[in-house]
Amino acid sequence: MMRRVGFALGVVAALGAAPRYVGAAPVGRLKPAPTTRPAPAYVRGAPTYVGAGFSRPAIAAPTLGDITTLADFQAMFDAGRATPRIVLLLSPT
Amino acid sequence: MAAARWVQQEILERNPTLDVTVYAIWFRMYPTDRRSAWPGDILTDPRVVHRWDEGKVVGTWYARELDDIRPRVAPGATGLDGPVPVLWDAYLIYKPGATFRAHATALVRWGRTILNTRRTFRDEVAGLPRR
Questions:
Q1: Using the beta-carbon criterion (under 8 Å), do B33 and A92 form an inter-chain contact?
Q2: In chain B, positions 69-108, which contact chain A (CB-CB < 8 Å)?
Q3: Residue B9: what are its φ and ψ, rounded to 5°?
Q4: CB burial readout B65-96, b (16+ within 10 A) else e
Q5: What's the number of domains chain B is made of?
Q6: Are A58 and A36 in contact, with CB atoms under 8 Å apart?
Q7: pLDDT per residue over B75-93, tens digit each?
Q8: B79 is in which domain, residue-wise?
Q9: In which region does residue B14 sit, left (phi positive, over 0), alpha (psi from -120 to 50) or beta (all else)?
């Protein structure tokens, strides 16, 4: 009986002292390094994993240019002829 | 502003693959309107190009073109019975290839007010190409 207990204790001690990994660490068990994912197009406010935290994707704020002559509008309109266009005529308030 | 918000939410956000360029032409129609009151946080989709038209040259030009474009007006359009010195609160949808000089022939549909004719607006956008 005493010999069995002694053997069991020896096995436990040996396992406890054994290194968890020998040589190269097993692939797939380690936590992967943080990666950066691009935000999906046109999905506003989608979280983007950046480093250790989450942040909103950078979206360029709209800017307001000027039209002073009809020729300005014509040039802009004709420059976009490759795609369908929608013209909106709006007042700001 | 409600119209601009509707376009952002119901046309652009609901159609992320819609291959379109939107020209938002802003100008003064109410006494409180001014360039500094431009609501840049409403129509934020990157497919939108914003321009301030201080002289209302675009709305005035479209008003002069009314006879040519009237056949393509959406059902339920309002404010077009009397003289129209400036066309505003309106949308105009064009096919690819449309040029300024021949715009009336490539006009798919237009409407006024935007909200009054929004059903037609939404239906016509559904037929435009995707990326």
A1: yes
A2: 87-101, 103, 108
A3: -80, -45
A4: eeeebeebbbeebeeeeeebebbbbbbbbbee
A5: 1
A6: no
A7: 999 999 999 999 999 999 9
A8: 2-126
A9: alpha
